[in-house]
Design a protein that fits this description.
2 domains; DNA polymerase, domain 1; alpha/beta; Rossmann fold; 3-stranded antiparallel β-sheet; 217 residues
């Protein structure tokens, strides 16, 4: 399968980095502190902004302050955060004006994780702090496309969560789903599905365009 585009918009956690151990650890600590059910939290947390997850599971708390404390703890803790195989060779050759990271996390957390793993920090990075309505709404990806100066329908989103794939669809963007944190059937609305990030190859096409090829087998 091959897709041509002008820009690629990457989700961060679950696509370029694996922060599962860290994320679960921090949510467990938070759940224990507030006598909440971790399982219920994890069912809605992936792909969503921390503050939106907190609003869903603990609307009685001062979620703005809780989210700030949560982000500060994550930014200072790189234990269990690793780069996904293939992330660096995929990102390094990309032109600076042809890719972005779109994450539901905070800028401090995203930047700290990228730098700690030796991954490039993009010129355009849209975080949960930059939007009013996060994934599964289209706003994060539309903001990234606008910042790059690329029409939405000429962007391809690389995601791993149903919320992220839904956000891409709502933004009328094509998407590649990496089946890393969710099952195939949860991601089936994506344009293309890939078993792992290493299955993606990006080539230079005509007139400075990008060609994404999913190579399996």
């Amino acid at each position: 399968m091959q897709i041509e585009c002008a820009a690629i918009l990457f989700d961060l956690d679950g696509v370029l980095i694996d922060s599962t151990d860290s994320v679960v650890r921090h949510w467990r600590q938070w759940a224990e502190r507030h006598n909440l059910d971790l399982t219920a939290i994890m069912q809605v947390a992936h792909g969503r902004r921390t503050i939106e997850t907190m609003r869903l599971v603990a609307p009685h708390l001062s979620v703005e302050e809780e989210a700030r404390r949560f982000a500060a703890g994550e930014a200072a803790d790189m234990e269990g955060v690793i780069a996904v195989d293939g992330a660096l060779p995929l990102l390094e050759p990309l032109p600076a004006d042809a890719w972005a990271i779109v994450t539901s996390g905070t800028r401090d957390v995203a930047t700290a994780r990228l730098k700690s793993l030796g991954l490039p920090v993009p010129v355009v990075m849209v975080t949960g702090e930059d939007v009013v309505n996060g994934k599964p709404g289209p706003e994060p990806y539309l903001v990234a496309a606008d910042a790059l100066g690329v029409p939405a329908d000429d962007c391809v989103v690389v995601e791993d969560s149903p919320a992220g794939i839904a956000a891409a669809g709502a933004a009328e963007m094509r998407s590649v789903a990496i089946v890393s944190t969710h099952a195939y059937h949860e991601l089936k609305t994506a344009t293309v599905l890939a078993s792992r990030l290493n299955d993606l190859r990006v080539y230079s096409g005509h007139n400075g365009r990008l060609v994404i090829r999913v190579e399996t087998g």
